[in-house]
Amino acid sequence: MNAPDRYESFILADDEKKVEVDPETRVPNAAMFTFNKEDHTLGNLLRAKLVKSQHVLFAGYQVPHPLFATFKLRVQTDGEVTPKEAVVAACKDLLGELHNLDQEFTKEFELKKISHRRTECY
Q1: Which of 73, 75, 78, 80 is nearest to 58 (CA)?
Q2: Which one of 2, 39, 52, 104 has the fewest CB atoms closer than 10 angstroms to its CB?
Q3: Global confidence as pTM
Q4: What is the dihedral sign for C-alpha 53, 54, 56, 59?
């Protein structure tokens, strides 16, 4: 089988970084970020969050090969913020949204358990 071992899709090697940044030389205020051990899930979330930013002119990602858990994110800004600052801000926003989602889900789950217990008592 040509597929790599499953653990290779989420455990970083000793010499591997989670994110690598390469500045774009052809376009001003642009950079290419390579995310290792990540896939479309994070790539599309980041792209969607970045395009909503007022300082981001372009954000797109690509998965070079479907068997390897890596994607490349290209970001161009208007110069008010650097591409790295834009990506860091998008990550922080996503973490905040995921935290809110976790809280709401937990609250609704607990309410469902309480209402289920009440209906069993009757």
Answers
A1: 75
A2: 2
A3: 0.84
A4: positive
Query: Under a CB-based contact definition with an 8 Å cutoff, are residues 19 and 9 in contact?
Result: no
Cβ–Cβ < 8 Å for 73, 35: yes
Chain segment 57-72, per-residue pLDDT in tens: 999 999 999 888 899 9
Round to the nearest angstrom and report the end-to-end CA distance of the chain. 57
- Classify strands 19-23 and 30-36 as parallel, antiparallel or unpaired: antiparallel
Q: Is residue 45 part of a domain?
A: yes
**CATH code for the domain in which residue 99 is found:** 3.30.1360.10
Dig out the tokens for 17 from the structure: 């970084």
Strand order in the sheet with 19-23: 19-23, 30-36, 70-77, 56-62
